[in-house]
UniProtKB/TrEMBL annotation:
Residues 1-145 form the DUF5933 domain. The lineage of its organism: Bacteria, Bacillati, Actinomycetota, Actinomycetes, Kitasatosporales. Residues 180-347 form the Inositolphosphotransferase Aur1/Ipt1 domain. The keyword Transmembrane applies. InterPro entries: Aur1/Ipt1, DUF5933, IPC_Synthase-Related. Keywords: Membrane, Transmembrane, Transmembrane helix. It comes from the Bacteria. This is Phosphatase PAP2 family protein. It comes from Streptomyces shaanxiensis. Coiled coil: none annotated. The chain crosses the membrane at residues 44-61, 66-85, 91-111, 120-138, 189-207, 219-238, 310-327, 363-381, 393-410. It is a multi-pass membrane protein. Its main location: membrane. It is found in: Membrane.
Amino acid sequence: MLWATAGVATLGLLITMEIAARYYCGGAPGPMTSQVKDLVHAPKPGPLYAGMALMMVVLTWRQRFVAAGVAIGIDIVFALGRWAVDAKPPGGHFFGSGALWVMLGCAVIAVTRRTGQERVLLLKGVGLGLLLVAGRKIGDTWLLITSKTRPAVLDPYLAVADHALGDPSWLAGRTLAAIGPVGTHVLDYVYAQLAVAAVVVALYQLRHVAAERRFPRHHLVRTFLVIGLIGPAFYMIFPVVGPVFAYGPGASGTGGVHWALANLWPHTPPPFTAPHPMPYDAITPRNCMPSLHTAWATAIFIHTRKGPRLLRYAGTFWLIATLAATLGFGYHYGVDLIAGVVFALTIEAALRSHARGWDRSGIQLVTYGTSVFAALLVSYRHMPMEMAEHPRVFGPLLILAMASVVYGYVRATKLWEPKNTPARQPERQPEMA
């Protein structure tokens, strides 16, 4: 019932986003149209092959090799066909469609060739893989809608509020420039490959699905998808483009000094003046508040805590490097990161509570996390000047608010862990004379 509900909800969201994209974005294709095009046109291979990898957790090793071989074979046929007609795929991608065909083929096999629990398990695997792909498509559509429907951005409010934290984006930007190209390339790779890290962790968590013939009650993919589906809604409420755009030359081919308030990032902190909404271009996504990269990296960190030592170290490194990249590249303000951590912990707490059954501690934790997140957004919007005027008060308060949610999450989850009580030993009976 849960998987059926999730499928119906996802289909409804896809239809809604398709209509919204065509209405608000001048007829631009939405996630459903884009997904259909991926069957023939060469898409980005990473998301589709990552989705297929998640699907294959329900297959045996022999079936996995067959599925991977079929996907690669289909992609080779498509690539040869494009070469024969001299068709150059956009973005230079030649592979990816094969993985989508294999996932759809497995869905057909599940319906026509499987019965009972085996059918359900295979459909769950296919659904998990397609949800990952659909989540990315929905996220891309959200970003396009934010750029078209929010002509004014609220960066000056966050820039002023960030004074309470000591302008960390400006500090990180100067530090990264001083480190040199090696550090820049490492952080750029970490930032761009966050989804790959999530898939690696998820595959570790789901490694026993094929043998046990069931999924665990909770795993990273659930948190990752919910963060990606809910988070962009706040971009509409609090549209922000980031320091490198609002106070710098822009990045990734969008923005520009002519759109910025001033070319200040990262060497000169923004002036201490009353904030106001500012116009920006209709291309750059308004995707800063909250920082979903921070939220996803936090989720990865949480889900690696019970893994082997190497996985725990990797999760810690990915979180630290992601935080450094979001600030050092000028994509986010410090207050974005605080909101992202609170957002991730609240989502994780809600999903874990749902998986294990809601109780008083779960309800209290989710309610508290939601309240803190809402308070952060309200304070950023309506109290930035007060925060900047009293950094010794509001800076520690922001950190304390985030730390309180972290503490609440750690405390609650320790209570949720099953306690291993030693077996009671039978009492020694006195010997009979």
